[in-house]
Each structure stands twice: as C-alpha cells, then as structure tokens.
Amino acid sequence: MKNIIEILKGIINIIKQLLKDPIGRIGFIGVFIIVLLSIFAPKIAPYDITEMFTKSKLVSPNGEFIFGTDNFGRDVFSRIIYGAKVSLQVGIISVGISATFGYIFGIVAGYFEGVVDSIIMRFMDVLFAFPSILLALFIVSVLGPSLGNTMIAIGIVNTPVFTRTVRASVISVKSMEYITSAKSIGLKPINIILKHITPNILAPFTVQATLALSGAILTEASLSFLGLGIQPPDPSWGSMLSESRKYMERAPWLAIAPAVFIICTILSFNILGDSLRDVLDPKLKL
Amino acid sequence: MRSYIIRRILMLIPVLIGISLCIFLIMQLIPGDVISGLLGIEENPELRAQYVIKFGLDQPLPKRYIDWITNVLKGDFGTSFRTDKEIFPEMMSRFKITFQLTIMAAMISWIIAIPLGIISALKRNTWVDAVVRFIALLGVSVPNFAFATLLILFLSLKFQYYPPVGYVGFFENAKVNLQIMILPAIVLGTIMSGSVMRMTRSSVLEVLRQDFIKTIRAKGASERVVIFVHALRNGLIPIITLIGMQIGGLLGGTVITEQIFSIPGLGQMVLTAINQRDYPVVQGCILFIAFIYVMVNLIVDILYTYVDPRITYK
Known about the structure:
Chain A: It is a multi-pass membrane protein. Chain A is mostly helical and 286 residues long. In chain A, 75% of the residues lie in helices and 0% in strands. Chain A contains eleven helices and no strands. The radius of gyration of chain A is 22 Å and the shape is elongated. Chain B is mostly helical and 314 residues long.
C-alpha cells in the first residue's frame, strides 16, 4: 500500500514537471484529449458508425453532421471518434507486446551477457535489418489482415528497439555499487532484477514506450491506408483517408478530417515523449 | 582499417542468413499453405498435387530453405505465381525506378534539413530555433500518406493540377519522368527531413560544446572560422550514419508513395504481390529490399571510417 502511494506521488510529480513546460503541456493535453475521446467514444459519437443515411450521402459539414458524411451516408465525425479508439487500442496493445518482450529479452541479454546476449542481440539485429513498415506489411500479409494481426505485426516490429534500450540501461545500472552490494549479500538474480534494476531503468523505458506509441499508431494508419490493417466496417483513420481519395474533389472533408486527426495524435505523442525525456532524463537534453 | 572492413563484411554473412531464414520461416506461418492461397476457394486435389511438386512442397523444410537460398545466390528468385515470369529481371527493372525516387527524396531532404538544422543549432533558443524544431517535429509526426493526400488535394483544388498518369522512364524522356517523380520525391523528402534536421541540430550543438571549439575561440578566431571551418566539419560527420537509416525509411516509405502516385517501382511490386497472394514475389522482394538496406548500412559504416579519422578500429 505504502509503495503504491509512493509510485502515485512519483507519477503526479512527473506530470507536474511536464505541465510546467509549455510544450510539455501541449503534448500532455493532446494525449489526454485523445484518451478521453476513445474512452467515451460511445457517448460522444452522435450516430452509430455503421448507420447509413442513404438520403444524405457525401453531405458537406453542417450542423447535423459536423464533419459531413461519406459515400455511404455515414457520419464522419462518429467514425473519427471511433477511429481514435481503434488507433489507441492498437497502439497500446502492440506497444504492450513489444515492451513485454523487449523487457524480458533486454534484461536477460544485459544481465547475463555472454552467449545468451549474443544470440538475442543477433536476432534483434536481423529484425532491425528490415525497414519497419515493410516487416509489418510482410507479417500482416502472411497472417492475413485483421485487427489482432495488425497488433501482433507492430508488436514484433518494435521489439528490437525496446530490447536495445533495456539492455543498454541494464548494462549501465549493473556496474553501480548498489548492485554489487546486493549481489554480495547473496540476493538471487531474479530479486536483483525486479527490486533493484527494474526501478532504475524505468525512465528510459517509459520514454521509449511513449515514442513507440506514436510509431505504432503511425504504422497502423499506414497499414490500414494500404488496406492491410483494420478491416471494414471498423473505422480506421488510415483506411478512411485511403477511401477519401476516390471523392477527393467532391468531398475534400473526407480527407481532411482523418488526416488532421492522425497528424495531431502522432504529434501529441511525440511531443509528450520528448518532454518526458527532458523530465526523466535531463542528461539527454540539448 | 582494411581488417575492420573485412571483418565488417564477414559479419554480414550471419545477418544475411538470419534475414533469409526469418523471411523463410515467416512464410511458413501462412494459414493453410501457399497453395491454398493460390487456389483460393476452388480446392482441386489434382491441381494441388501438381503445385506441390512444382514448388517442391513435398520436400522437408531445411531442404526447401537450402534450395531457395542456393537459387537466390545464383540470381534465380523463382517465377511469379500469377504471371509465371521470372522474378529477378522484373525486380531489377523496378528497382531502378525506386532507386531514382529514393535518391531524389534523399537529396530533397538534405537540401531542406541540413541548412535549417545548422541555423537552428547556431541560433539555439531563439524563435528561429523554435520554428525549425517545430517543423522538424511535424516532419517526424506527419505520415507520408497523409501528406501526400493533402498535397494532391491542395494542388487539385487550388491549381487544378493532377499528378500525371502513366510512367515514363528517365532515359526515354527525362523531362516527363521528372514531372512524374517530383511529387512523390517531395513527399518522401519533406517527411524525411524532420529526422535529418533534428540530427543535424543536436550534432552541431554537441560539437560546439567541445573543448577544441573553446580553444579555437580563445586563440581569437572569428566566429565564421569557428563555425564553418571547425564546427560544421565535425558536426556533419554523424549525419552520414543517418543516411543509412534514412534509406531504410525511404525504402519502406516508397511502398506507400509509389502506390499513391502509381509509380511502378519495387514498393508497388511488393504491394501488388501481397494483394494477389503471389508469395514467391513477396518473399523475393522483401529479401531483396532487406539486402539493399543492409548493404547501404555497410557502405555507410565503411565511409564513416574514411570521413572521421578519429575512429580507429582494432
């Protein structure tokens, strides 16, 4: 219980520091809005995302449909709101996958070094040798396009970055005196890893996770744009943007709404990641 | 130095084996198998048996891998499921187009990014710096397909300009070719310039903090000498590493931009093959692109040792 309060205090402290910096504030508020939009999507969205108003196809933005309607007569605003939910869902789960594997591989490689380290890191080098969007594309095309496979593909693609970050931090932390003392009093490796190393690598890990979220959302949007990510009728900003190209001149709002939302979301996460790095890791600030 | 280069090249072999193995094993994850993808819903046992023999699927996995890789080393990437044509020649002719696009995009990104990055570093913490940093942040945050779509939208609504349809080779008609290639190159190059700008800025700042800059200032050299003769020469070295990473991003980015602008390059070939479930083509193209990426990084690493004499390799 005491620990939880400590952790909460720490988090509140970090948020306070973030909000002091005007740029950090923008990032934090941006991410906060997106999170709110996706949590309350069913409450905010005025219409059902699959409901087709056959009499009002390709209607330009007005009081009834604030972002207009698409070629099926569906409300663009509702689809955008649900798109936020899909984006965030894919982002969080895929980053969860890569963070978990990255943490395990990175800890094992960094703590035990030697042969295990070489094997893990060579494997990561191989994954790194593919342009990331191409690897994601390849995995999705093999597994078949779907929501779950999109998450798996993005999760795999981002694992090497986490592994490298964790490994590098573990190696630098490992040489600290407190780890040597922990070892000398006979603590088991698992205890050293969980109680003494993990808390001290959390900073770079959190920064990496925030930046990876923006990358994951971008990759999801790219895959969906190519028709290989989220499948209809589920709304995705990427596929909405791709669809909009057919009605470019008649209905430019179809392109503008998803484009603006994709850009603002990724921008917010990037800003938040950068500011978080400044707060958590002041050494890196230039 | 020579021994470093030789070692660096030898280190490539396990990576390349790893890449090919990785691609080969991922291909085995196809639900059902390659043939069910090819046959679609019309399962036909006779046809299936024919295909099994044709693609050697009756062979054990290790043998299939070794056969594939020996053929690839001979330049034989097999034939397409759909067209029955040899994959390698088509891949090469399409690669030329993607290569041209990549080079044009890279050049555009350097032209934008390096001067802006330097200015931003020199005018650190001024409004100029803030503007450049924001542009750079946009560059890393705007997806290339979103930029491309908005650009096309803007050009068509404002100027009634539409990207040309159809492709003409550079050596057939350079002018028309450049007209076709310039928009996708601008899209890729502008997006890529974000990360180059950031790298340039931080690397120049890093150099300006070094002791030797203080020494040069202390001996009374003008600020111009400090910046142009000393700071930039050293500050731009790390940007070479970025070129390697950039090529990877560009090769990935071409898949989307080539699709949007209907450029018949390697990226479009991969995507068409994926949509048609033409697995030999997918497998070949992915291997080829990863190979190019690895080779570019090798060249960049070697180049680095020439440019930066401080680096010694044991």
